[in-house]
Amino acid sequence: MTINLFQAAILGLFACLCSNSCMAGQAVGNYTIGRPLVGGLVCGLVLGDLKLGIACGVAMQLVYIALVTPGGTVSADVRAISYIGIPLAMVAITSQGLAPLGTSAANLAKSVGTLVGTVGTVMYYAVATLNLVWQSFGWKDVENGKLDKLYGVNFGWPWISHILFSFLPTMLFTYFGSTAVTALRNALPMNGIPMKTLFTVGGMLPCVGIAILLRQIVNKTADFIPFLVGFTLCASLSLNLVSVTVVSLLFAIVMYEIEMSKGTKTVAASGEDDFDDDEEEDI
Amino acid sequence: MDNTQTPKKLDKKTLSKSFHLWFWGALTCFSQEHMQTFGYLCSMLPVLKKLYPEHKDQENAIKAYTAFFNTNPMLGSVIIGITTSMEEARANGKGIDGETINDMRAGLMGPVAGIGDSLIDGTLIPILLGISLGMSQNGSPVGAIFYIIVWTLLAYFGQKFLFFRGYELGDKAVSFLVGKQGAAVRRAVGIVGGMVVGGVLASWVNVQTSLKLYNSNGKAFLDLQKQLDSIFPGLLTVVVTLFCWWLMSKKHVSAIWTMIILVVISFIGVLCGFFNPGLSY
């Protein structure tokens, strides 16, 4: 499989639309076009192998199932994962002759995607830094009362940041990278230590994504229980995700009722003894 | 207070324009220094133009929105809605000034970011993605298309609903967001989130060891993976995940370094035969 300049340019355009600061809005750009699952669909269509594209997208989506960006800090860049990582993984998988839907293809995709995604954070910070220039234009416009120019600052100028740091890198990486990936195949045999490590890491990387999610959910040790129950339902009882969601709703209702009744008790108690409201809440 | 003229009212068209500017432009001109400030400024422009016919007043009014702003952009649309209603009250001289609006904005962006990140990014999207991944497991595009349709509709109409609810409720919306009922809903959704994340891990990730010990006849007397499965299926997967969690939240290791540590572990594991993906040409 090779990637020609035209295909590389289309991938570059999609790279401008996604990422955390993107030209297609958060919901559509970052949360839809940027998702590796959707990126797999797009790359599959552009490169003409839908099945392989989706398979790579599914594999990488697992690693980045929880792409929470607290306070605008990113550990991986979706435009690099979805529009550089997936195309290169597709080339690598084809050149290694792996079955598109196999575990080894998925693990290779995860490794390639994570590597590219981590390196790709440079693109994220480059765009954000260049945007400071357009924002300085914006502050002048606010000062001088040229309010209509703010639309240009928010929707026009950032395109230049993206052409420089999203479009061009994506186009060049996918165009030249595909040749490099094919050459790399001969240098690293599949049963050697480097490739074995790469595939093993690929299998473990989703754990990092899940751990990031756990960081959001777990505040105290007891919060691990729902997580472990969900895991057991799937791993030991072989339920699928929809079933687990339905079961979890039951616990959610119980929890909601408990929390709500807790509140009314406090109010009632504060009515009986003449304590301060604030003190009651502390208890 | 000047009550001689009819009170100014924002019409649906202006509000809708303001919403769409936020929906498409919350983060287009993002920088580490100002983050979503310019997205906010733009989405307030139609509102200010409607409320203040004099250009001079518009210039003064926009000053309230030049302060730093950053939150979860999905749930954050409720904040824009609330400020449009407060701006309307300010234009009608109801004792609200720019500082009040700014305090409200600054006070809400933190909690809304926290709630939005854990409810939307941390719970809703993993559930949706988990279901979509299942549909695309065999390389079919159905899952991806399902995600695109369901998520885009949810995001668009959900944010629109929040925006207009914010406008209708005004500063009354705050008490729900940080109040008791809001807290109870968050606890309940947290349970769903926890269980689904566990389910996603079990369905999609499988860390296995290939360690086997052989006796002199060449027969394996210890198959570690089988032993582990008889204790608790998927034990290694849970252990690796909890290890990553421990590194990141207890040892404050960044995600990138956690990944590098996994590379080192895999490398050592491959060298001593604990891990073997078992591939050859």
From TrEMBL, chain A:
<feature type="transmembrane region" description="Helical">
    <location>
        <begin position="224"/>
        <end position="256"/>
    </location>
</feature>
<dbReference type="Pfam" id="PF03609">
    <property type="entry name" value="EII-Sor"/>
</dbReference>
<feature type="transmembrane region" description="Helical">
    <location>
        <begin position="113"/>
        <end position="137"/>
    </location>
</feature>
<dbReference type="InterPro" id="IPR004700">
    <property type="entry name" value="PTS_IIC_man"/>
</dbReference>
<keyword id="KW-0472">Membrane</keyword>
<feature type="transmembrane region" description="Helical">
    <location>
        <begin position="197"/>
        <end position="218"/>
    </location>
</feature>
<feature type="transmembrane region" description="Helical">
    <location>
        <begin position="157"/>
        <end position="176"/>
    </location>
</feature>
<keyword id="KW-1133">Transmembrane helix</keyword>
<keyword id="KW-0598">Phosphotransferase system</keyword>
<keyword id="KW-0813">Transport</keyword>
<feature type="transmembrane region" description="Helical">
    <location>
        <begin position="80"/>
        <end position="101"/>
    </location>
</feature>
<feature type="signal peptide">
    <location>
        <begin position="1"/>
        <end position="24"/>
    </location>
</feature>
<keyword id="KW-1003">Cell membrane</keyword>
<keyword id="KW-0812">Transmembrane</keyword>
<protein>
    <submittedName>
        <fullName>PTS system, mannose-specific IIC component</fullName>
    </submittedName>
</protein>
<keyword id="KW-0732">Signal</keyword>
<keyword id="KW-0762">Sugar transport</keyword>
TrEMBL record, chain B:
<keyword id="KW-0812">Transmembrane</keyword>
<feature type="transmembrane region" description="Helical">
    <location>
        <begin position="255"/>
        <end position="276"/>
    </location>
</feature>
<feature type="transmembrane region" description="Helical">
    <location>
        <begin position="184"/>
        <end position="205"/>
    </location>
</feature>
<dbReference type="Pfam" id="PF03613">
    <property type="entry name" value="EIID-AGA"/>
</dbReference>
<feature type="transmembrane region" description="Helical">
    <location>
        <begin position="144"/>
        <end position="163"/>
    </location>
</feature>
<feature type="transmembrane region" description="Helical">
    <location>
        <begin position="112"/>
        <end position="132"/>
    </location>
</feature>
<keyword id="KW-1133">Transmembrane helix</keyword>
<dbReference type="InterPro" id="IPR050303">
    <property type="entry name" value="GatZ_KbaZ_carbometab"/>
</dbReference>
<keyword id="KW-0472">Membrane</keyword>
<feature type="transmembrane region" description="Helical">
    <location>
        <begin position="231"/>
        <end position="248"/>
    </location>
</feature>
<dbReference type="InterPro" id="IPR004704">
    <property type="entry name" value="PTS_IID_man"/>
</dbReference>
<protein>
    <submittedName>
        <fullName>PTS system IID component, Man family</fullName>
    </submittedName>
</protein>
